[in-house]
Protein 1
Amino acid sequence: MIPFEYRPTKNLKEVHASLQEFGPDAKLIAGGTALVIMMKQRLVRPSCLVSLRSVRGLNGIEIKDGGISIGGLATHRAVESSSLVRRRLPVLAETFHHVATIRVRNMATVGGGLAHADPNQDPPPTLIALGATVKATSADGSRVLPLDTFFTDYYETVLNPDEILTELFVPKLAPNTGAAYLKFLPRTADDYATVSAAAVLTLDKNLKIINDVRIALGSVGTTPIRATAAEAVLRGQPVKAEAFAEAGEKAKEAVDPISDFRGSAGYKKEMAAVFVRRALEKALGDIRQQARVRASAKPKARKKVTKKAAKKRSRR
Amino acid sequence: MNKKISFRVNGKKAELEVPTNRLLIDCLRYDLGLTGTKEGCSVGVCGACTVLMDGDMISSCLTLAVMADGHALTTVEGLAKNGELNPVQKSFIQYGGFQCGICTPGQVVAATALLEQNPRPNEEEIKDWMMGNLCRCTGYYKIIESIEKAHQFAK
């Protein structure tokens, strides 16, 4: 690693000031799990690291407008273990659990991971399918960016060098919505996916018609990819196994994988179709499971208390 | 470029001046002489360099020494108290939880962190937690057994 200045900061004001001082040559560091590797490999050579590690108040996980707001400095481990996330949006906890190992998840932050923009990451497909947005903050103010147009290329996003990813927001899901994230891992459990797919499916109240659907994939292009053509196949259609398979086939058109040791490009394309179908099936299973839970939780009609039984009870 | 930092390591305060590009693992091994922590893959995958920062396990090969400023670290050297090995260490010896030994400091530190949260983990929980600690001798059965039975040595 080439030498650099290390600048700890205590609040966003200090962060903005340091970024202004060093310009685009400065890099923000939070958990450092991705950046330190890139610096070791000399792919990134910042003159200054502006550390966010002591900035307070940006690691909360809370309910906001019925959805979930997650501070940019919350760790992956915090999201995965949050009782709020596990209860309200289990798919998000599962997705963050898939990221690397606990050591990495203890350090890597939500904002840092998204800004890093590696197309092999786990959270982006799920977050895109959930319709998540991020807040980018600079000295001039904040803007809210939808995540499905946030990633522009390998390790590139729409963020400006002076912007910090301060918040991730996942909106409230519509009723009768199921979500799933599947990671195809033919090698080891801590590996990047060969293909990953997320689906968020919303049915009508009779659970017969697909009101809405969002599908996103990871590891099959230069960015996480939203498969809008595959979604269009399903929207407004009745729930049918063939339709899910057809959507999977359509998703192949959206992906552009490269051949590597995790599989050939052709294989990954085929697997993209398979995993989109399976993610849709799992999301549907999720909806049906929720419906079963709701049905069993309904209070049963109370037995009428006969006079005799009432007498008996009062004697006890 | 150098920076003054201070942190606690195994309960003792350490104050030193390090180059900003010093990795935590090198700081521990070469500046502080704590060579129990090993470097394997250097990219955060193998787990040989596992240490605890404020009780959470991290890869010391992916952490800059300056990032540990103000924190409390535990390395394998800090697990034994008053010359007595901790339950995980005793169990690794009793049940043969190591072969060549290079991954062992990381395994023991990671397992200690697990038992801190979950004193009686089952096999699935152990596998999930220990997934990021690789044993190139593939001695996993004995490692899992050692962790599963470590509670026997707890007081």
Protein 2
Amino acid sequence: MPELNPIVHGPLRLAVLSLLSAVDQADFKWLREKTRATDGNLGANLSKLEQAGYISVKKRFIQKKPNSVYTLTASGRKALVDYVKALKTLLSTNMTNI
Amino acid sequence: MEELENAAIVNRLNLIEAMMAEGRHATQRWGWMFLLWGIGPLLAITWESHWTDPSLAWPVVTVMCVIANGILIKMSRRKEGVRTTLMRSVGAVWASSGLTVLLIAIAGTLSGFGDPRSFYVAFFAIVGAAHSASSMILRWLPQFLAAVVWWAATAAALVLPPGNLRCLSVAALVSNVIFGAWLTYREWSPKNE
């Protein structure tokens, strides 16, 4: 049985990684809009992904307001790919066992 | 990790797919750029023909357009909050084309070998190629029709008498303004929000 990466497994973190895998970079506001998460929840999950080295953040100020821009790192992309592979393996194993 | 039911696995895979689709469909508003680079040169042509200090027309208008372009790009990037490879590709096509036209114009003027017909032919062909490349990247037919208009202008520039080249240029630029106005309307209409 393949192990599912617990960091990627969280639905919001998975959504963020998937979104970032399809773009070059995205800011906090765009990610919040797409995931429909609250500021606190999204912020906490982004921190976890950043600590794991799956995303990188660039903080800047736009008209005196903080703006964080997130990018998927190479290890984040690999983690997402591995997670999808693991899910597919699980699915095919479950189907075989039926 | 607890064992996952098939439905839960499928839900996860659907979530990944839906989020990736959201990312891929992130769009940028480009209409203003065609308006700017249509109206700017038209203004320069009008200045050159009817107003004082005609030699300043192109340098002043081009610098103003480049500054406005930079400011508007920065503003739109901040507003959209996302950058995609698609946006970068289209941006690269237009930036490279613009720089090429600028280089030909400056080099032609400074060297004194700038033949107006050659410049018009190169200018129309480069803009046509940029429209075509954008349309292929975005898989968007209306922009390919804009490319056809510019390529038709390229062919016309090779056969028309020199006195008609400016009129041809005005017609091509007006087509760019119309395309930009239509695109801007489309981008800002509520159904596309």
